[in-house]
Design goal:
By secondary structure, this protein is mostly beta strands. Helices cover 12% and strands 40% of the residues. The protein has helices at 18-26, 139-146, 253-259, 318-323, 347-358; strands at residues 3-8, 13-16, 34-42, 50-57, 63-69, 74-81, 84-91, 100-108, 113-119, 126-132, 152-154, 158-164, 181-184, 187-190, 199-201, 207-209, 212-219, 226-229, 240-243, 247-251, 263-267, 277-279, 285-292, 298-301, 304-307, 343-344. The strands form 7 sheets. It has a 7-stranded antiparallel β-sheet. Strand 4 and strand 5 form a beta hairpin.
Length: 359
C-alpha cells in the first residue's frame, strides 16, 4: 500500500487512501506491523517548546503518541500502547534552530525494531536512533494522526504529516522529475530511463558511468515540493522540474564577478521568484529520480548542469547506509564522495545573480 494517509497542514487538507476506509469497515482493529510516520516542520524562532503532534485514545487498548521539540534542541518521542511505552530522546543540538526538520519514525514489530530519524532537508545532517517496539499500532490510530479531530493536536508550524506501510528511507534523496533530459554517450535521455551501467556526461564534458539509479515516490509538500526552473534563465533551453533542494550548477562572467568563482550551485527553491522559477502544481505524490556517480559531480542537461547524488562517507556509517535509499547496494561498492568545492548560494545571492544576468 505504501503511502496511505497525508495531511497538508498548511491548508488543513487531510487525505486517506480509499482502501484504508474499506479495511477499517471490515476490520476496525486492523494493525500496521510495519510502517513509517514522516513529519516535516519549521521550528519556533523564539525557542519555545513545541508539541509537534499528539494523539490520545482512552479505553480498551489505550494508545497515545507524542512528538515534542524542546528549547534545548532535543526531540522527544513517546508512544504508549497498553502497558508498553516507547520513550526516546534524540539530542540534535541548538544549532540552526529556525531550520526545517524532517522527522521519520519507522517500525517493524516482526523484528521488534523501531527507528527515529531527524534530518535537515537542505543539508546532509541526519541523526538516527533505534529503539525496541513490541506491539503494532492500530491502523485507525495512525489515520487519526493525519486527520486531526478531537483526539489529535498538531502545531501550526508542522508542514505535513505522511503515513506509509513501508520503512521509508532517509539520507540523500532523489530530486529530479522523471522527464529531466540528461546528456549521455548515446544522446539525451530522460532521467527515469537511466540505470546502472549507463554513461552520462558530467559538467566538465567528460563521460562517467552511473553506479546506481534511484527513485522514490514522496508527498509533493515541504522539502519535496516540485519547482519548475524556467528557460531561458541560467542557460536553460527548456523548462525542467526538480525538487526544491536540487541544485543547479551555474557559471559565467557574472558568477566570477560577483562571487570570485568559476561555478556556483543554486538550490532550486532560491530561484522561486516569479520569473526564473516557480513552485509547480503537482498531484498529491511525486516521483523523483537521481544518479549516483563515482565522484561528487553535476550531470549535463541541454545547456546547463544539475548536481547528482552526494553521499559523502556513507559507506563508513553502517546505520545511515542501512536506512538509506542505497541500502540494496553492497556497502563495499559505494564510492566516497568529497565535496567538489562549489559555493552554494543563499537565496538573496541567487536573486542578485539572476538580476545581474537579466540586466
Amino acid at each position: 500500500m505504501s503511502w496511505f494517509a497525508l495531511l497538508d497542514n498548511e491548508r488543513r487538507m487531510p487525505w486517506v487512501r480509499d482502501a484504508v476506509e474499506t479495511i477499517l469497515d471490515r476490520r476496525p482493529r486492523a494493525c500496521v506491523p510495519q510502517g513509517s510516520i514522516v513529519l516535516e516542520t519549521r521550528l519556533s524562532p523564539d525557542g519555545r517548546p513545541q508539541t509537534l503532534l499528539s494523539y490520545k485514545r482512552d479505553g480498551a487498548g489505550a494508545f497515545s503518541f507524542s512528538l515534542m521539540s524542546t528549547p534545548h534542541g532535543s526531540l522527544v518521542l513517546v508512544i504508549a500502547q497498553g502497558d508498553e511505552v516507547v520513550h526516546e530522546v534524540l539530542e540534535r543540538g541548538r544549532e540552526a534552530r529556525t531550520d526545517t526538520l524532517q522527522v521519520t519514525i519507522s517500525w517493524d514489530v516482526r523484528k521488534k525494531l523501531g527507528r527515529l530519524v531527524v534530518a535537515r532537508p537542505e543539508t546532509e545532517h541526519v541523526l538516527i536512533q533505534h529503539f525496541a517496539i513490541q506491539r503494532p499500532p492500530l491502523l485507525a490510530d495512525l489515520v487519526a494522526l493525519a486527520c486531526p479531530k478531537g483526539l489529535t493536536d498538531i502545531d501550526p508550524d508542522v508542514i505535513f504529516v505522511a503515513l506509509s506501510t513501508d520503512i521509508e528511507p532517509v539520507g540523500p534523496m532523489p530530486t529530479l522529475s522523471p522527464a529531466v533530459p540528461i546528456e549521455t554517450a548515446q544522446g539525451v535521455r530522460l532521467a527515469m530511463t537511466l540505470q546502472q551501467g549507463d554513461v552520462v556526461r558530467a559538467a566538465s564534458g567528460g563521460l562517467v558511468p552511473v553506479l546506481h539509479a534511484v527513485a522514490r515516490c514522496v508527498p509533493a509538500l515541504g522539502s519535496f515540493r516540485p519547482v519548475r526552473l524556467r528557460a531561458p534563465y541560467f542557460g536553460l533551453t527548456q523548462d525542467v522540474v526538480v525538487s526544491r533542494y536540487q541544485r543547479l550548477l551555474v557559471s559565467g562572467p557574472e558568477v566570477e564577478y560577483l562571487f570570485g568563482r568559476e561555478q556556483v550551485l543554486i538550490p532550486a527553491a532560491a530561484l522561486v521568484n516569479g520569473f526564473a522559477g516557480h513552485f509547480e502544481p503537482a498531484p498529491r505524490f511525486v516521483t523523483y529520480h537521481q544518479l549516483l556517480l563515482p565522484h561528487h559531480d553535476a550531470v549535463r542537461i541541454p545547456d546547463a548542469a544539475l548536481e547528482t547524488l552526494y553521499i559523502g562517507r556513507m559507506r563508513r556509517d553502517k546505520a545511515l547506509f542501512g536506512a538509506s535509499i542505497l541500502s540494496d547496494m553492497s556497502r563495499a561498492t559505494l564510492p566516497e564522495h568529497h565535496r567538489a568545492g562549489y559555493q552554494v548560494l543563499r537565496a538573496f545571492e541567487a536573486i542578485t545573480l539572476a538580476e545581474a544576468r537579466a540586466a
